[in-house]
Amino acid sequence: MKIANIELPDRAVMLAPMEDVTDVGFRLQCKQFGADMVYSEFVSADALIRSIDKTMQKLKVLEEERPVVIQIYGKDVASMVEAAQIVEQAHPDIIDINFGCPVKRVAGKGAGAGLLQNIPLMLQITRAVVDAVHLPVTVKTRLGWDCEHKIIVSLAEQLQDQGIAALAIHGRTRSQMYNGEADWTLIREVKQNPHMHIPIIGNGDVTSAQIARQRFEETGVDAIMVGRATFGRPWIFKEIKHLLQTGEELPPIPLDECILALKHQVEASVARIGEYRGILHIRRHLAATPVFKGIPNFRDTRIAMLRAETVDELYAIMESAVSQIRESGVQSVSSVNW
């Protein structure tokens, strides 16, 4: 599989872009567990142009995480072009345009998935960004605005005509937000359209290695993205890649390996933005991880982790939870009650 001049494995598995999740530390960790390509948090074009410090920090790219994509969003041509040119100076491998974010503060202001209600402007932005930079430009979007306007099959051809190098499709409409099940039938239809020649990347509800393999087999997509299933579980890439490459499920992952991975997340987050903010940033991963869900008082443990304010306090809670897991006889993640 190739995106422009970037070589990727067949049936590539990618880390989806997620706000306040896919920072450089988490991207690097997912890469180490086997992600073939990683995406940044989405970056506001307006904030880039104003050189907002927090936004500029999102442009940091490490050589070890390549190929890496920086994703931008905005609602007008001029700001998106200027933002893309700023991003190009950070030297990612690809620039991605977000036409899929459904949250009100983005879509409600005409950016992200909001542009699914203004296709001419979406296409104008896409062409302008493609023409303004030398890097490959890709797009991530949704099936349509709502169930009455699932326009992705025709929209995919229109976006391809603007010169994009690949298209990622989330199998929900904007009105669905993240609710209900992702519908991959239209993703398959886009991929099977004989007029499409760019890579198609499927996204939505890929939560296990088995589902990943099923999506490849049923739709023929060139790649898949894994999003929320990575929370507290970056090793999901290792599980998926093993099944795709060998046809067999990965042997149980030792509990110690998973705990070490979670602690590395904590340390990377704290090193990047300080102890208090770093713990706030990482707690969603610890609360979501399947590792602790086998203990009898998981709810109490989860609440305690969410309230922790220091690394020592957080690690003490984690060690207590690990002790309870070991007492129950569990030694590997696949044995945990997911």
Q: In CATH terms, what is the fold-level topology of the largest domain?
A: TIM Barrel
Secondary-structure arrangement, i.e. CATH architecture of the largest domain: Alpha-Beta Barrel
Strand content: 5-15%
Write down the overall geometry.
globular
Radius of gyration: 20 Å
**Into how many domains do the coordinates divide?**
2
Structural class comes to alpha/beta
**What is the number of helical segments per DSSP (H or I, 4+ residues)?**
14
Oligomer: single chain
- Low-confidence stretches are none
Which terms would index this structure?
338 residues; alpha/beta; TIM Barrel; 2 domains; eight-stranded parallel barrel; two-stranded antiparallel sheet; 14 helices; globular
Task: Describe it.
The chain has 338 residues and is α/β, with parallel strands linked by helices. Helices cover 44% and strands 14% of the residues. The protein folds into two domains: 2-246, Alpha-Beta Barrel (TIM Barrel), CATH 3.20.20.70; 255-335. The protein is built from 14 helices and ten strands. An eight-stranded parallel β-barrel has the order 3-4-5-6-7-8-9-10, surrounded by seven helices. Helix 4 (77-88) runs parallel beside helix 6 (119-132) and helix 11 packs antiparallel against helix 12. The mean pLDDT is 92.
Question: How would you briefly describe this protein structure?
Answer:
The chain is an alpha/beta fold.
Write the layout of secondary structure elements.
Elements: E1 2-3, E2 6-7, E3 12-15, H1 24-32, E4 37-44, H2 45-49, H3 53-56, E5 68-73, H4 77-88, E6 94-99, H5 104-107, H6 119-132, E7 137-142, H7 152-161, E8 167-170, H8 185-192, E9 200-203, H9 209-219, E10 223-226, H10 236-246, H11 255-273, H12 275-288, H13 298-307, H14 311-327
Parallel strand pairs: 3-4, 3-10, 4-5, 5-6, 6-7, 7-8, 8-9, 9-10
Antiparallel strand pairs: 1-2
Helix pairs in contact: 4-6, 7-8, 9-10, 11-12, 11-14, 12-13, 13-14
